[in-house]
Design goal:
36% of the residues lie in helices and 20% in strands. The protein has 12 helices and 11 strands. The protein has 2 domains: 51-234, Neutral Protease, domain 2; 242-324, Roll (Pdz3 Domain). It starts with a strand and ends in a 9-residue tail after the last strand. The protein has 343 residues and is an alpha+beta fold. Helix 1 packs across helix 2 and helix 7 (171-181) packs across helix 8. Strands 5, 6, 7, 8, 9 and 10 form a 6-stranded antiparallel β-sheet that branches. Strands 1-3-2 form a 3-stranded mixed β-sheet, with helices on one face. The chain has helices at residues 33-48, 75-92, 98-113, 117-120, 123-128, 146-164, 171-181, 193-202, 205-213, 222-225, 268-271, 293-297, and strands at residues 2-7, 13-16, 21-26, 231-239, 248-253, 258-263, 279-283, 286-287, 304-311, 314-321, 326-334. Bound molecules: zinc ion. Residues 45, 49, 79, 82 line the site of zinc ion.
Length: 343
Amino acid sequence: HFLYLLVPFSMRHAVEHAYSAMFVLPEEGAADETSLRSFLGISAHELFHLWNVKRLRPAALWPYRYDREVYTSLHWFTEGVTDYYTGVSLLRAGLMEPSEYWQRLSAELTQMENTPAYALFSPAELSIDSWLAPSSYRPALYQGSFYAAGKRVGFLLDMTLRRETQGRVTLDSLLRYLYRRYYLRGKGLPEAALEQAAVRLGGPALKSFFERYVWGRDTPDYEALLAGLPLRVEVTQKPYSGWGRVGILRYRAESEGLRIEEVLLGSAAEKVGLEPGDLLLTVGGRAAKDLSPAFWDSLAEGAQLQLGWTRDGFPLEAAIQLRSALQKHIRIEPIAEDFLKSY
Ligand SMILES: [Zn+2]
C-alpha cells in the first residue's frame, strides 16, 4: 500500500518498504498539473523499488547494516535504473503521453551532456561516492547524481540489449533474469552481476558497453548506440550566448560582485581556474556586477580580457581569450509511437 503524509510546508521525501511505500509531500498534493506529475513520478519510483532494491539488492546491502558506511558501485542501478523505470512505468500505464516522455528524456540527457561531473566521474564512481559527494569538500562543478547517471545508463542499456538482439532481449528480460538468478535463491547482487547478466543475455558488445559507460567515463555516442532502433536521434551543437560564452553558466549577484555557481568544463573561464564559489569582481577593468549578458554577445571571438576575482578572500586574476563554449542538444523521438510502451 501507499501511505501519504501531506504536510503544510515544502518537503518531498519517500521511502520504499518490502510491501509498501511511505511518502511525505506538500499538502497541495496533486492539485495542479505540475504537482500531479511530481506525485505520480515519486509514487511510480517507490513502486518500482519493490523489485529493484527490496528484491534485487546489491549483496553489499544484504543484510542492511545501520552501524557502518556501506559502499557499493551499484547505486546507478538501485536508484538510477529505478528512475528510468519511473518514466517507463508512467508511459506504459498511459499516465504519460509518448511525446512528453521523449521530450523529458531528451531534456534530461541534454542537461547531463552539459554538466561536467558526468564527464569526470563514471556511474560506478558516483555510486561509491554517495557517502562523500554531498559534503562540501568537492565544488559543485564536480558533483554528479547517481540517479541521473544511472537513468541514462538504464536507457542506453535497454537500447543496447534491444539493438544487439534485434529486440529479443530488453532491460525487462535482464531484470527478470536477475530476479530468478539471485533473489529467488535468497542472494544479493555481486558488484559484477549486472555486467555478467547483460553479456550473457545480450552478447559480447555488452562488455564494452559496461567498460565505457558504467565503469568508464565515456560520453555516450548516441548515434552509434541507437543505430538500427526505431528512434530518430538528433545531436546538435550551438554556441552559448551571454555569460555562457565564457563558460559561466550560473551566478548570483552579491553587493561586491558575482558569486559563481556553475562553470562549464573546457570553457575559457574554467581554463583559467574560475570555480564555483569564487566571487568575480572585474572583467576587462569593469565591475562584473554591472555587465549584462549583452556585453558578452557584443565581443568578437578571440577577444582578450582580464578577469579579477577572489576565493575565500584571496585575490586572483588571469587573462582569458574568448572562445565561445558550445552547448550540445540531444533530441530523441520514436519512429513508432508505441516503442517502449509494450512489455
Ligand atoms: Zn529511490
